[in-house]
TrEMBL record:
GO terms for biological process: fatty acid metabolic process; sterol metabolic process. CDD domains: CYP74. This is Allene oxide synthase. The keyword Iron applies. GO terms for molecular function: heme binding; iron ion binding; lyase activity; monooxygenase activity; oxidoreductase activity, acting on paired donors, with incorporation or reduction of molecular oxygen. Belongs to the cytochrome P450 family. It holds the Pfam family p450. Keywords: Heme, Iron, Lyase, Metal-binding. The keyword Iron applies. Heme binds at residue 431.
């Protein structure tokens, strides 16, 4: 148990206490709407210090011809942020990607579940279908993912041996897509018309939808050119139409059990399939594409001491439990804490949006603010989960932060469109695969440290996440 974790926990005074919040002064939301900005952390830090407030008004990209209204109320602290999870007060209709929604031509003409508010009649049956599909495959999560990881580590070792380094992102993307397809379709994508193209097809499809949010960060490319190319006009779906059809047909032909269940629930088969493609491609594969490199980056950067501690815990528990099981994973306190810390310090989805359903008053640590019905609320998750009034040394990766008394801080870890202490239901917008994400992240660490003692990496930044290159890897010295 770290002193940081202990002092952080003991300093908490129930920050959400209604009595203490009701005494806060009512303050006008500072800021004005200017041009959409780029350079996230720098912008948010500058405005936060300028207004001496974690709540203020600003514009979010993209610009005209994509978003009808870029005006948002920004939330940057752990107290105000959770209003975005309260679907009785904020509407989640068409706000997955922010102040714009990609054309439904990307999803077969349907507004898929991720863009639906829970109040819409289609939301509950679709989310219930997802939760049922995952529950039915619960027994297969660990063995299937362990098999997938075995293939990943073989590729990793081969590349380091032959090239002197290994591009983890590329290997992880291939593994992730294969796992997701096998989970839902009970076969390798290579057994379908997709062949080995699945990851590249989905990545291209994701890019065309998310381009309005992307900043290339190229010093030779003036901002005005980047804005014109990516942030002013939507990229047409026609350029990914044939690829999407190939993806859709592969799932339609291979996921019969899920689609049969959908029809028994009154969901049209083609609607269910387009939703499944989105769940598998956008939510699952897209999430893994961001999460796994981030997890490895933070564990790698933490150094050999943490590696040794993880290896000792994992090997001892696996030996005592006789293998890698749900029960064994639950006993790995440090491993669980490391995964929570990775999700806290770099949430895989940094943006959250919601439109006020009614006039309301929200609170930060220091003040209360009035929000009018219809105003768009935006939360930048990496600031909320690094709130210095909640977490001690918030920008530091502390592997054992959530052990012992530190577990009380889990309610301030926001990464799944909800609190870590909450669970997904058909009435909320929390990720249906929340528990699966946690499980897979833990299994990745377990399988890694059963095989290896330590490793060295180089990391960088990609369009929507981190890049990781393995420079060396040390095989386990135990027997």
């Amino acid at each position: 148990m770290s002193s940081s974790s202990s002092s952080s926990s003991s300093s908490q005074k129930d920050l959400n206490s209604s009595s203490s919040l009701s005494k806060l002064p009512l303050r006008k939301i500072p800021g004005d709407y200017g041009l959409p900005f780029f350079g996230r952390e720098e912008f948010f830090n500058a405005r936060m210090h300028k207004y001496q407030s974690t709540v203020f008004r600003a514009n979010m990209p993209p610009g005209p011809f994509i978003a009808s209204n870029p005006n948002v109320i920004v939330l940057l602290d752990s107290i105000s942020f959770p209003i975005l999870f309260d679907t009785s007060k904020v509407e989640k209709r068409n706000v997955l990607d922010g102040t714009y929604m990609p054309s439904t031509a990307f999803t077969g003409g349907y507004r898929v579940c991720a863009y639906l508010d829970p109040s819409e009649t289609s939301h509950a049956p679709l989310k219930r279908l997802f939760m049922s599909a995952l529950a039915a495959r619960h027994h297969n999560f660990i063995p299937l993912f362990r098999n997938s990881l075995s293939e990943l580590f073989t590729s990793l070792e081969d590349d380091i041996s032959s090239k002197g380094e290994a591009d983890f992102n590329d290997i992880s993307d291939n593994m992730s897509f294969n796992f997701v397809f096998r989970l839902f379709c009970d076969k390798y994508p290579s057994e379908t018309a997709l062949g080995s193209q699945g990851p590249s097809i989905v990545t291209k499809w994701l890019f065309f939808q998310l381009a309005p949010l992307i900043t290339l960060g190229l010093s030779l490319l003036p901002d005005v050119v980047e804005d014109l190319l990516l942030h002013t006009f939507p990229l047409p779906s026609i350029f990914v139409k044939s690829d999407y059809k190939k993806l859709y047909r592969a799932f339609y032909a291979s996921a019969s059990s899920i689609l049969d269940e959908a029809e028994s629930m009154g969901i049209k088969r083609d609607e269910a399939c387009h939703n499944l493609v989105f769940l598998a491609g956008f939510n699952a594969y897209g999430g893994m594409k961001a999460l796994f490199p981030s997890l490895i980056k933070w564990v790698g950067s933490a150094g050999e001491k943490l590696h040794r501690q993880l290896a000792d815990e994992i090997r001892a528990v696996v030996k005592a439990e006789g293998g890698v099981s749900f029960a064994a994973l639950e006993k790995m306190s440090l491993t669980k804490s490391v995964v929570y810390e990775a999700l806290r310090i770099e949430p895989p989805v940094p943006f959250q949006y919601g439109k006020a359903k009614e006039d309301m008053v929200i609170h930060s640590h220091d003040a209360a603010f009035e929000i009018k019905k219809g105003e768009m609320i935006f939360g930048y998750q990496p600031f909320a989960t690094k709130d210095p009034k909640v977490f001690e040394n918030p920008v530091e990766f502390i592997g054992n932060r959530f052990m012992g008394e530190g577990e009380r801080l889990l309610k301030y870890v926001y990464w799944s469109n909800g609190r870590e202490s909450d669970n997904p239901t058909v009435e909320n917008k929390q990720c249906a695969g929340k528990d699966l994400v946690l499980l897979l992240s833990r299994v990745m660490l377990v399988e890694f440290f059963l095989r290896y003692d330590t490793f060295d990496i180089e990391s960088g930044t990609l369009l929507l996440g981190s890049s990781v290159t393995f420079k060396s890897i040390t095989k386990a010295t135990y027997t």
